[in-house]
Each structure stands twice: as structure tokens, then as C-alpha cells.
Amino acid sequence: MLDYDKEADAYDVTRGGEPRAAAAADAVLSLVPQETQSLLDVACGTGIVTRRLAAGRPGLRVVGADAAYGMARRAAARIPGAVLLADSRRLPFADGEFDAVTSVWLLHLVDGPDDVRAVVAECARVLRPGGVYVTTVDKAAAHDVGSDIDAVLVPRPRRPAQDRADRVETYAVEHGLSPAGQARFRGYGQGRSPRGTAADLRRGWYTQLPPGEPLTEHFAVRLEELPDQEVPRPDPEFTLRAFRKPVAG
């Protein structure tokens, strides 16, 4: 896994920047009821999406939380006074404190099903009755766009997808939430090129392919044999799922 403290300063530039953030925020807000007054963005990262959530809904109180100091520092510069360090599995908020909770590009990063359950449980706990939890699902699958790069990488070893939509829904239902809609948005600027993907392999971005291993180098060489080395293939399309906490009685 990436060291997000070290990656913080370059993170946005390498992941679509403002266009991707705008698409993500617009899609999230399409699933958040207009009457929502408070929103917690769990694992807010650099705050590039969080800031747009706040700007897109005047009057909405937005709070960001992230476990990585480097990320939280960047986010705090974007939304001063509204960001804190926090583990998404143990959120420092009261039960039912927020009208909406979001976790964009988080669940695919956690170590296993127990941690996904813990994150979903915490998001459900701090959500008020009638509120909505919105999260990305199936992130890794979104990057498989049917390109020649994907064809080369098909046989690579893969980490189990912790954010599979069916599993996330199961965990949400276990914690009292009900499905409440979905949306999709384009990952602007994240279309992969052969040369860039080979470089990512060699720097350890693929968790099951350690840098320097023969299998890692095998895939990198195969990618370098593809045409149009610098040309990005299509951007991914990310999926959001929304879940509502029922009102008691």
C-alpha cells in the first residue's frame, strides 16, 4: 500500500486533479438529499473532493477526517477548521451526529472484510436516522476498461476486492442501512498509458507485484511492447452506492 503521508503533495496531480474531483463531488451530491445540513467525509485525503462538496451546497456543514497526517494537512489548507485526524474504524463523533456520511475511494484500501465491516459500522453509527451514507465500490474493476493494457495484465495476481458492491451492501444491511440509489462518474485523467503503467508496476503500486520481482518485470516488459506508449487509454468510470438509515418507529 502507498505511504499516503509521502504521497500527499503529489497525490492530486497524479489522479486527475480538479476535473476528477468535480465529477466525484457532483455524483456524491446527486445522492445526498437537499435538506442535508451536515456531512462527514471519511478518509477525505487531500480534501480536493471535500472542498467541492462544501462549495456545491451552500449552508452545508462539511467535516473531513483522515488517518494520514500528510493528507489531513493538505485538506486543512483547503477547508480550514473542518479537518481532523481520525481512524475510519473508530470515528471520534457521537452517534447520529451527521445527516450524511461519505467515503470516496476508501473501502478498497482496507486490509480485509473485518475492517470493511468496521468502517461501514462506524459510518452507520454516526449517521442520524433518515440520513444517507455514500461510498465508492468496485474501484479496481473500474480501471479495467477493456484496453490492451488490461489484456496484458489479466493473468496478474490480484488482491481480493474488499469493496465489491455486493459485499458492501451486505455489510451496510447488517448495520441497519438500506440501499438508496447509485451514481457513476468519470475518473478524468486516470486513463492508463503503457509506459506509465509499467512505471507504476516498478514503483510498487500493484500490491501483489513487488518491485524487482521477476513476475513484475515480466509484466512491465510486456507493457513496453505495446503501441502508443504515451497515449492514455479510456478513463475509468467509478460507481457510488447510497444507503439510508431508517427512521425509528
UniProtKB/TrEMBL annotation:
<dbReference type="Pfam" id="PF08241">
    <property type="entry name" value="Methyltransf_11"/>
</dbReference>
<keyword id="KW-0808">Transferase</keyword>
<feature type="domain" description="Methyltransferase type 11">
    <location>
        <begin position="40"/>
        <end position="134"/>
    </location>
</feature>
<dbReference type="InterPro" id="IPR029063">
    <property type="entry name" value="SAM-dependent_MTases_sf"/>
</dbReference>
<keyword id="KW-0489">Methyltransferase</keyword>
<dbReference type="InterPro" id="IPR013216">
    <property type="entry name" value="Methyltransf_11"/>
</dbReference>
<dbReference type="GO" id="GO:0032259">
    <property type="term" value="P:methylation"/>
</dbReference>
<protein>
    <submittedName>
        <fullName>Class I SAM-dependent methyltransferase</fullName>
        <ecNumber>2.1.1.-</ecNumber>
    </submittedName>
</protein>
<dbReference type="GO" id="GO:0008757">
    <property type="term" value="F:S-adenosylmethionine-dependent methyltransferase activity"/>
</dbReference>
